[in-house]
Amino acid sequence: MALLPAEPPGEQAADHYDGEAYRRLPDGVWRFIEAPSVQFRILLGAFCAGLPPAHVRVLPRSIGALGTREGTVALCLIVLGGRGDSGGGYWLGVDNTAATFNGTAGREHRQTLGGRTSGKIDQAHLDYEVEGAGQFGSVGRGNIAAWMLTTVLGYTLPIPHWSPRVYLAFDYASGDKGPGGGVGTFNPLYPNGHSYLGYIDYIGRQNIISANGGLITTPVRDLTLSLQQYFFWRASDRDALYNKSAAVLRPGNGTTARYVGAEVDLLATYNFTRHLQSYAGYSHFFTGEFIRKTGPSRDSDFLYCAVQYTF
Fold first, then answer.
1. Does residue 180 belong to any structural domain of this protein?
2. What pLDDT, in 10s, does the model give residues 246-286?
3. Do 99 and 54 touch, CB atoms closer than 8 A?
4. 10's torsion region: left (phi>0), alpha (psi -120 to 50) or beta?
């Protein structure tokens, strides 16, 4: 999920929020507090941002003057360690005029409280990341009780030049217990394409369980190769399957099957210069029992390549 950044603004190449969040932080009010003697920095932030396409308004008096703007309001506290360790907490509040989750519709007042920690265990060549978030509020007359959890454990093999890193990860995002009434479906708020849960973007961070792993290596300078494998199940057999844009991909009332399928991603990235980059990849989605019982169920292939120039 990763709402909190691994580095300060401007030092991370990719945007993330999938609940999952902002590794490149949005515009807002940020303050650094540095303590060189103990080698850590504290980053405090507050921001307001629009939430298209819905019409939203900021919760009243949430952060003083910023509360007069329309959008989502948030507060973050981030501790950046001297060895690359980081951690912190965050709060996001959204007031969405129209929302529907598994048969419950109405105005959405949703609060998200979460935290994240990550770092390295140098002597063991291990790295880790843990993030969790809970959501509460209301949709129409139904109360919200939703949550998510992400854990990652990586190991960098001591092989010179190649520096291969293998990792295992587990992702969970809650689903609804049944149509109507209270809402148990996690809302990722600002889902980004490709960053998590597969490049094809069939699977979003709602009502999902994913066990995944991968390998990343640099066989020659400026060339990075990665292999990722995902397996997906519905967290609740009474809620839908949602795609990366938070839309319903398949309704959940046609079967109690949970296994959605699996995806494998291959990606090669080459940096010609600090400004010019090229990448190419291939992904394949293997459909599972839930997909086969709810509609068309052919496997999918995704092949792509691009050249990117950054000014």
1. yes
2. 899 999 988 999 999 999 999 999 999 999 999 999 999 99
3. yes
4. left
79-90: per-residue pLDDT in tens? 655 556 677 888
Alpha-carbon span 266 to 230, nearest angstrom? 12
Q: Which of the pair, 29 or 240, is modelled with greater confidence?
A: 240
Residue-number span of the structural domain to which 163 is assigned: 98-309
Residue 159: inside a domain: yes
CATH number where 122 lies: 2.40.160.100
**Cβ contacts of 22 within 8 Å, gap of 6 or more:** 3, 4, 5, 15, 16, 190
Over residues 12-70, the pLDDT tens digits come to 333 333 333 333 334 444 444 444 444 455 555 555 544 333 333 332 222 233 333 33
- How many domains are there within the chain? 1
Entry pTM: 0.79
Residue 56 per-residue DSSP state: B
**For residue 29, is it within any domain?**
no
The residue type of 201 is: D
pLDDT at 10 over 80: no
For residues 207 and 175, the answer to whether their CB atoms sit within 8 Å is yes
Judge whether 77 lies within some domain.
Answer: no
